[in-house]
Amino acid sequence: MKVTHTARIATATLLVAGLTSAALTGCSGTTPSATGSSTLTLWTDALRAPALKSVSAQFQKDTGVTIKLVIKDFATVDKDFISQVPTGKGPDIIVSPHDKLGAYVQNGVVAPIQLGDSASKYAKVAIQAVTYNGNVYGLPYSIENIAMVRNTALAPTAAKTFDDVITTGKAAVASGTAKYPFLLGLDPKQGDPYHLYPLQTSFGSSVFAQNTDGSYDGSKLTLGDPAGVKFATALKTWGAEGILNPNITADIAATSFAKGESPYFITGPWNIGAIKKAGIKYAIDPLPTAGPDAAKPFLGVNAFFLSAKSKNKVAATKFLVNYLGTDAVQEKLYTVGDRAPALTSAFDTIAATNSDIQAFGKVGRNGVPMPSIPQMASVWADWGSAELALIKGEGDPATVWNAAVTNVQAKIKG
């Protein structure tokens, strides 16, 4: 159920409107429009654009700086951004998933932003996700992650371990009340390391080593450690038992769960609407442990990034921090995307009346940001192919897994 919080948004909007030009004055003592271009271009997509119109209009009213919203294809916007910023034809601000940040920094198309004291108002993991080489590059606005969605009619209590999931799922199939013991969508050609990652981390296996600040070290690929081989062995077992099915795609998994054909489904908030519409009674549970460690899902953070070539970074930064970084805007962005706000106060407001967001957020607190380092682009294909082969029962787990690791290492070294 989407939460609008009309009264809260109206109040916050009035507060935003109360910001004077003096509040947006740059170091030189002039207003942003006097220090650079009087128009800022923001690349967004058709989904988010409606939520940004009113705040853009308010910013123009307060400062005289126009925010031009340009609709772009979210699937290719990162490539357009990287190619157009150096030519001067790119935007001042872009909406983008955080995992593109490494490529943006590598290509010199984004500039750091100064969040100041406001950084503490965001979820810690969201700030980690938009931090690269010690610099904060983005204004985070949403966090998303997967969890275990349970059909409460088929499984009345939450499973603590993946073995519990398997036992309950098999019993439901044997009794004729379910068709599948467990659902997790797989790409028929590339597998799905993203959805399988919490099971992998539960074995103590990760993809890259993390530094103390949560960032990733691209020189330390950790897939090939003994914990990774244990996970690979489990994949082959689960495939042989029919727990993981290579013929179940993401769409089939979502449709099957909505039909009541399985007690369990690992997915994200993007599928909850269809489950509700189908009338399935469900609960959102913590991800079960498959090994000795906690199950840690990847977290995806959407954020606004500042172009390195913006002609008015002062105005753009003020728009990011003082306007987009408000409860009113972050709650409004939630209403069009169903993704939990990164701003803690906005999340708390929505979670107070939305148990689904609260549940996903609780699971997300144990998660890790998806690596945004450029080396990650060299990992997905071999990683997913190895997982898929093992689920299909092909090869020795250690051999298949280590061959994939060797291929990844070769790609990273270039």
Description:
42% of the residues lie in helices and 16% in strands. Helix 3 (49-63) runs antiparallel to helix 13 (327-337), helix 9 packs across helix 17 and helix 16 packs antiparallel against helix 17. The longest helix is centred in the last third of the chain and has 17 residues, at 397-413. Strand 5 (131-132) and strand 6 (135-136) form a beta hairpin. It has 17 helices and 15 strands. Strands 1, 2, 3, 4, 7, 13, 14 and 15 form an 8-stranded mixed beta sheet that branches. The chain has 414 residues and is of the alpha+beta class.
The total count of strands amounts to 15
Instruction: Report the β-strand fraction as a percent range.
Output: 15-25%
Q: In DSSP terms, counting alpha (H) and pi (I) runs of 4 or more, how many helices?
A: 17
- Pairing-aware structural class of the strands and helices? alpha+beta
Portion of residues within helices: 40-55%
Describe the global form: globular
Largest sheet: 8 strands, mixed
Mean pLDDT: 90
pLDDT under 50 segments (min length 5)?
A: 1-35
Terminal residue distance: 47 Å
